[in-house]
Every structure is written in C-alpha cells, then in structure tokens.
Amino acid sequence: MVKRISHSESRCGVARPLDAIGDWWSLLIVRDAFDGLRRFGEFQKSLGLAKNILAVRLKNLVAHGILETVPASDGSPYHDYVLTEKGRGLFPVLAALRQWGEAFFFEPGEKHVVLVDKKHGQPVRKLELLAQDGRVLGPEDAEVRRQPLRH
Amino acid sequence: MVKRISHSESRCGVARPLDAIGDWWSLLIVRDAFDGLRRFGEFQKSLGLAKNILAVRLKNLVAHGILETVPASDGSPYHDYVLTEKGRGLFPVLAALRQWGEAFFFEPGEKHVVLVDKKHGQPVRKLELLAQDGRVLGPEDAEVRRQPLRH
DNA sequence: CGCTTACGGTTTTAATTTGCAACCACGAGA
DNA sequence: TCTCGTGGTTGCAAATTAAAACCGTAAGCG
Fold first, then answer.
1. Which residues of A touch B42 (CB under 8 A)?
2. Does the interface ipTM go beyond 0.95?
3. Nearest residue (CA) to C1' of C27
C-alpha cells in the first residue's frame, strides 16, 4: 500500500501480513467473505465504506492472493470475490481477533455475539498456542528461531 | 484514530479491536513489547518509524488499555511502556498472524523464522479453533451467535 | 425503441493522516 | 557552563482516505 521499508532488510513474519491486511477495512472485508459475501455491492452495503475505497481494497486483496475474482455465480456480467486458500488461512487470525474483542472490548453485561460451534451451538474453546506435546504456551514459553530448512 | 462509524449502530467484536490496533504500526509495537522492549527509544530503533508517529501510537495503545506506563525501571526520569493484561491477551492474535505470514508470505526455501517452544526448541502446533469436544473447527463449522448472558 | 434502474466501478475534490526534519525540555556528565 | 542522550512536540509537504458526482453496461418495462 505504501512503500513501508522496515529498518531490517527483509520484512518479518508479522510485518509482511500487515502489508496485505494491515489497514482498517481489509480484515473486515475478509470477515464478510467468510460470512459468504461475494459481490462488490454486498461488501459495500455490509461495511458502509466508500466505493472507491472498497475498490482499492478489493484490488489489493486480489493482488495479494487473498481473494480472487470468479465469473459471477448468478450470470450477471460482473464477477464475485471469493477467498483463496491463502485467504481462508486467515480464519485463525480472525477468530483470535474476535475472541480478544469479545473478551476485552465489551462491558460486562453488554450484549454481544460469541463464536459458537455450529453443530452443538456451544461457544468454541479459547484459542491457545500449543507445543507439540500439547502444553499451552504463553508469551514467555515461545520464541522465534531460525528454522533449519527441511524439504 | 478516525471517526469511523460502522453502518450498524454498534461495532462488532472484530471492528472494535481494529480501532485499537488496526493500523500498520500498532501490532508491531505490541509484538516488540512481547519481545521485552519497554522504552520509547527501543521501539523507535526497532521499528524505524518517525518519532511523532510512535508517540501517537503509544498514546493510543495506552488510551486503549493495551499498554500502560510505569516508572522507568532504570531510574531514568522517563517511563516504560509495558503490556497490560488486555495487551497480553493479544498473544494469540499475534501468533496467528505470524503463522499465517510464515505459511503464505515466504517462498519455499526462503529462510525465515518460526515460532518454537522454548523448552524443547520444537516448532509450535498450528493454531486451531476447537469446539468444546475438541473437534477442529473450520470456517464452515463456526458462526457468531448472540450469547445468552450468564453471570 | 426509448426510458429508467441496478450494478460496478472511476474521477474529482476536500479532509485527514503520515512522515521527515527541525526544534524543545530536561537531567547527567565533564 | 557546555554538551550529550533521551523523549518527546511542532511545522510542513506528501500521501492516503473519504464523500460525492459521474460513467458505462445490461436488464426491465411500457
């Protein structure tokens, strides 16, 4: 979006994603895409953002391989925007963000929605980072490390 | 940051967090805070962003209760910025974002870092949304639902 | 056919935000 | 006293965002 060059020569695993979805609207567009919205007009109505901004954001998401355009499912002369594999990979990010929002951005007692397991209608478990052996890892238990390539 | 009023009267559990951390730099500041950075200068050196921008971001994160200022640990006349409980709650978000970045933003073979379990040095498990009964939930298996208040 | 509407944008223009650079304030040392 | 390091603030130019008007195509209708 903007020529944002990190001070280190190559962007890290957190900064690169932010280039793709690090603005206010993009993640909301992706969320709506998970909710089944596909058309320009659907996104615009749902989000209430200016059409030029939406056009730029969609273009950006497509450029980053998060959405792709497919021929319109209803025969109209336009196209649909659908999530790619990469885009669907954002599901845990969105879930984590939502859980954090639900936990910290609502007054106790303020009504809000929660993520539930569709099958049983029960709230989902809180997302937790787990080690291979199943231990729950907190911020102090994990670190980034250069991984020996194996392929 | 900006008076962004969603078309629906009250912001949802995804949009509210984005008001707090939905800009390019804020999450990177939080990540650095998880890495133990505490001082204005440390953040600035690490991220390489303009001082005025950093000042505004830090102020915003403090205003949102994600960081708080504490008297400097080294006796200098300034203060440290440390994560609050709410801020530490962002750990899964950051982990999810990092895993997504690692999975989709690097060429195969391009060297990059991965999150590892500090204790055993092994890569962590991929974050997964789980139902109460332990089933892994994909985008189609979960939905948002108004939760009956219970307290 | 001629008129109107819906859809999916693009263009124009103004307001807001960003980022660089210069400046300021304060305390510690020399 | 002079200078330096730290932690900002201020001014200003450039980039981004947002609102609104406009455009082109296709469909619906009388």
1. none
2. no
3. B77
